[in-house]
Write a structure and sequence with these properties.
Order of helices and strands: EEHEEHEEEEHHEEEEEHEEE
Largest sheet: 7 strands, mixed
Structural class: alpha+beta
Number of strands: 16
Strand content: 25-35%
Strand order of the largest sheet: 1-2-3-4-5-8-9
Amino acid sequence: MTEPQSWKVGSALVTAIVEAETANVPPEFFFPASTAPEIAEHSWAIPMFASPDGALIFRVQAFVLEIGGRRILVDPCVGNDKHRLLPFWHLQRYTFLDDFRAAGFDVNTIDQVIHTHLHADHVGWDTVLIDGAWVPTFPAARHLYTQRELDYRHACDAETTEAVFRDSVAPIFDAGLADIVAEDEALGDGLRLSPTTGHTPGHTSLWIESDGHRAVITGDLMHHPVQCARPDWAEIGDWDADIARATRLAFLDRVATDHTLIFGTHFPTAPAGHVVAAGDAWRFEPA
C-alpha cells in the first residue's frame, strides 16, 4: 500500500489513490525515441522520478477531488479481474479499493466519475465483477464521457481482443449512470474540462479553480515528468504523435507561464508540482 497523498487547491482537496507504482522501467517502453542515458542527463528527475542509470518510475493512480460538497473520482485506473493484453494489467488483484477506503472514502459517496480518456488504465474501477457480472463500483456517481472518446473506444475494441467498453463502460450506461458531455464542459464549482487532443481523439484534462488558485489534472497528455525536458518524445500509445506533441508544448508553455499546479496522472512519487522554464524546455518541481 502507498500512503495517500493530498494537496490543497484553494478550498478544494485532491488526494491520490495509487493502484501501482513500478520502478526500473526501461524508458523505451513508453518513449521509443528515448534512451536511458538521455534520461540520466536530467539530474532534477533523479532519484524521485528515475534511477541514476535512467530507468523510469511509473505510477497508475486515481485522484479524488473534494470541492463544493462533492466527491469526484478522476481516472479510476486498471481494475481487477479484467482481461487485458498487457500482462501486467491482466487479471490483476490490486488492493485499490481497500486503499481507497483506508484513505477515508466510501464507494457510495462518490458523486461523479470523470475520465480524461477511455484507455484501459483510466476506466477499470468503474466496474467490479460480482457473480459473473460487471456492476458499477460507484452506484451513486454520474460517469462523464465525451462522444469522441466513446467512438474511439468502440473502434479500439473492434481492432483487438480486449473488451474495455463491454466490461468497464457499457455496464455504466446499462445502469443509467452515464452522461455524455462536451470536451470543454463547465462542471460547476470552478471545474471544467478542456480538450487536450493527441493521446486519444477526445482526450480532455480537468482544470480546477478555487479561491484564486488554479490546478489541472493532466490525464495522458504527459506520462512522465521527463517529458517536461523532452516534450518531443511521443508516448507509444499516442493516437496521433504530432498532435499530441503540439498539445503538450502548448500546455507546458501555459502552465509554466501562469504557475498552475499540475497533477500528473502517471507521475510517480510526488505527482503534484509546477513546470518551470529550464533552458529551451522545462523541468518539473514537486509541490
